[in-house]
Write a structure and sequence with these properties.
By secondary structure, the chain is of the alpha/beta class. Helix content is 46%, strand content 15%.
Length: 240
């Protein structure tokens, strides 16, 4: 099995030394990475780092504004680094007007990106599964009103709606990749195997559906790289 990591997990290192962070996650055994920013590096510099450490890109967390306002530059950058999956990491969709505007944007740019060989997706937190003050439901509308791919953050789905495995099964045709993450139902994140989220069941369902898994562990205790080590050891233990 091959596993990926969201580089936000090791942001205590990436902010100062992206090259060293990529080197260390590769040494831990991760085979692909999901970026959350490039810290001023050119696309060619990032590609050279990836090639040096034998890493692939499973996706990037990229703000929708970069797609909508800098389309050509964004596409060129992602093509250079070998990324075929742009994922919006979240945005303010707290009322129907904001949702309508986002849906309009997504439905404009998703087919444009598709023509460039790049999928367009959305990453959830917990609040998207609960009604806004005006009653609008974010996640439901993103699923039914767009063709966006859905990057299920299985931990936040656990916090927000309680049934990440059912969600994976229901949306399996829209999944390019998932976040596998652990923590408690109150929103306190933990490394894999140390919380109450159904991570073993998530793992089994992802294997069954053939969906790549990207680790995200956010607490930096004692460091992002130590959490990355704990998480990949947990994943490897599930293979037995």
């Amino acid at each position: 099995m091959e596993y990926g990591i969201q580089m936000y997990s090791v942001r205590d290192l990436t902010k100062d030394n992206l090259d060293e962070a990529l080197k260390q996650v590769a040494q831990l055994g991760y085979k692909f990475v999901e970026f959350a920013g490039f810290f001023g590096h050119s696309a060619q510099e990032v590609k050279d780092m990836l090639d040096k450490y034998g890493l692939k890109v499973s996706g990037t967390h990229t703000g929708w504004q970069e797609v909508a306002e800098h389309f050509e530059e964004t596409v060129a950058y992602h093509k250079t680094i070998g990324n075929h999956n742009i994922i919006v990491p979240g945005c303010d969709l707290s009322d129907q007007k904001k949702l309508d505007d986002f849906v309009e944007m997504a439905n404009k740019f998703q087919p444009m990106l598709e023509k460039e060989g790049i999928s367009f997706g959305y990453h959830n937190h917990a609040h998207e599964f609960k009604p806004n003050v005006d009653g609008s439901m974010i996640h439901d509308q993103l699923v039914y009103r767009t063709n966006l791919n859905i990057e299920i953050d299985t931990y936040w789905a656990y916090v927000g709606m309680g049934h990440p495995i059912e969600l994976m099964e229901r949306l399996k045709d829209r999944l390019k990749v998932i976040h596998i993450k652990d923590g408690y139902a109150n929103g306190e994140g933990m490394p894999l195997g140390q919380g109450t989220a159904p991570v073993a069941e998530v793992y089994k369902k992802a294997v069954e559906l053939g969906i790549p898994m990207v680790v995200e562990s956010e607490t930096l205790k004692p460091s992002g790289m130590e959490e990355a080590r704990i998480c990949i050891e947990f994943l490897k233990a599930q293979e037995k």
